[in-house]
């Protein structure tokens, strides 16, 4: 049988097979990030109230063997007084976490409730006003318009008002937070409109010299938020694998924002100094391929400011031959001025 353009069904079948093979030669696969182990998942759950988005991104992308160092650095950045043997911030945080889990547990850990979350971030309130559900006929409850902030008023539902009067520099007068138990389950919901950010753990008695100083509740200037966020070294790394003929290759790309780097001042210029490397490892983490490159330059202050304000990146690419079995791609960038190395890990399965 012939098709109307003169090709037999057999010829069409051969053509389709050829097209599939040709397409497979240029098909690509996106490597997967390595899943977190239970201990790492628990760490993220514990610090979910205070971890910065960039910190969580770094933690999820790094090799498992580097996470212990990350956790040490995470708490060190928040240590209000590194000269003391303990970390007061960490101790206070975990104490509040444990109290919240016990005191506000209602079918779920207390940290997952609004009262628990506020307790963790603000600490114990100066005063608590508790109001039981008023003696109002059921059919009239939908019409009660009592103000829960007024002493002695009847409330439609059980209500708690938490009062904080020890943060005058962040709020105009005492802070009042209203919680309402809508369903009589003991799970009080926060009614007061309040922005909760990763900068929100309040410790007014501290005057910390590092990142902890940005972790206040209240009106925080955007440049301060940016300063806290950008004090963390990070970069973006991607890898795409492709079939070329009978071989497999990976195109690895690294983009390092100028805003994330540290610079060494040399006269009127500012110098950055980086060591980049990429490794291909087999399923047993043995190194198969390794490439490294040093990058550095000296910039005027005007050019440096321009690169940062225009979100300019330092971009590098590598194309590497890959083994046929499952393997890992390790990407490493060392900021030699900062003295800090950050590795990221991608896994590819055949």
How would you explain this protein's 3D organization?
The chain starts with 8 loop residues before the first helix and ends with a strand. It is about 25% helix and about 30% strand. Helix 5 (about 90-105) runs antiparallel to helix 6 (about 115-120). With about 350 residues, it is an alpha+beta fold.
Beta strand count: 14
- Total domains: 2
The parts where pLDDT drops under 50 for at least 5 residues are 1-28, 135-154, 202-228
Shape assignment: globular
- How many DSSP H or I helices? 8
Radius of gyration: 28 Å
Compute the separation of the termini in Å: 41 Å
Q: Provide the succession of SSEs.
A: HEEHHHHHEEEEHEEEEEHEEE
| Mean pLDDT metric | 76
Strand content bin: 25-35%
Helix content: 10-25%
Main sheet attributes: strand count, strand direction, barrel closure: 6 strands, antiparallel
Helix-and-strand structural type: alpha+beta
